[in-house]
Design brief:
By secondary structure, the protein is an alpha/beta fold. The chain contains 8 helices and 9 strands. The protein has a 7-stranded parallel sheet, with helices on both faces. It has a two-stranded parallel sheet with strand order 7-8. The structure holds NADP nicotinamide-adenine-dinucleotide phosphate. NADP nicotinamide-adenine-dinucleotide phosphate binds next to helix 1 and strand 2.
Length: about 240
């Protein structure tokens, strides 16, 4: 089950898992265009109890859970503080606790929470609610790793920096200045993609990570390693 699986990274992950023959359910407020073989359930994380009931019905119909992924973030227009906290944190807690007993009795069982480098660093692109929600999501991941460990459920956090997704590709394609700047500041010399983030989430949920829980993995091409004043000197020299 992928909450927030109808767009961006979530849709890439849904397509990846469906392509591997897994039984995939993606959740979004609108059905959108689901990848082939993906079951879409409409539900709103702002009404998490209702969403939980729908997901319990899905599990009854399609079988127990192996992986549960949370990618939803607040995309509304009202108070972003309470919106971010409700959609990122309250919904994750309600759905995760409500489905903890619905995992398969054996095999690899895992949860992935998708955070952001804004959980640790500060970006002027996003408000305080986003920052606080993403920081708290990482701690929520550690909390549930300990709490659900005895049930054999692993919980990890994947925190990307800005990446290119299908919905934003046209924007970046038209902005050579911006992509050149990303190339200059990122150790791997380019922006990442939604598909690359999805692959890391799949890896975190997969059996290869069977003894890894409570960890946060940054998917940022090394961006968070670079000291800012060194970067300023590098870019200033480039423009001399
Ligand atoms: N995009 C980036 O560059 C970037 C950078 C760092 C971190 N992240 C994080 O990575 C994750 C995925 O980002 P993305 O850009 O791929 O996401 P996205 O394109 O905005 O997709 C979000 C998904 O969540 C669903 N969703 C949103 N609000 C919902 C709600 N109230 N209830 C249920 N579903 C809801 C959306 O479907 P509907 O709209 O139909 O509801 C969609 O499926 C997010 O947590 C984001 O904070 C993204």
């Amino acid at each position: 089950v992928i909450v927030g699986g109808t767009k961006g990274v979530g849709r890439e992950l849904a397509a990846l898992w469906a392509g591997q023959g897994q039984t995939v359910t993606a959740v979004g407020r609108q059905a959108g265009q689901a990848p082939e073989g993906v079951n879409v359930v409409t539900g709103d994380a702002e009404r998490p109890e209702e969403l939980l009931r729908s997901l319990r019905d899905v599990i009854l119909e399609r079988g127990p859970l192996c992986s549960l992924v949370f990618l939803q973030r607040y995309r509304g227009s009202e108070d972003t503080w309470s919106g971010e906290l409700n959609v990122s944190l309250t919904a994750t807690r309600v759905v995760l606790e409500g489905l903890a007993e619905e995992f398969a009795p054996d095999g690899d069982r895992s949860v992935a929470l998708v955070g952001s480098n804004a959980g640790r660093f500060v970006t002027t692109d996003q408000g305080p609610g986003y920052h606080v929600a993403k920081a708290a999501l990482a701690q929520l991941g550690r909390y549930y790793a300990v709490k659900l460990g005895p049930l054999g459920i692993r919980v990890n956090v994947v925190s990307p920096c800005a990446f290119v997704k299908q919905e934003s590709a046209a924007y970046y394609e038209g902005r050579d200045d911006l992509t050149a700047m990303y190339e200059a500041i990122t150790p791997l010399g380019r922006m990442g993609t939604a598909a690359e983030v999805a692959r890391v989430v799949a890896l975190m949920c997969g059996p290869g990570m069977s003894f890894v829980t409570g960890q946060e993995l940054y998917v940022d091409g090394g961006l968070s390693l670079v000291q800012q004043d060194g970067l300023a000197r590098k870019l200033a020299t480039r423009h001399d």
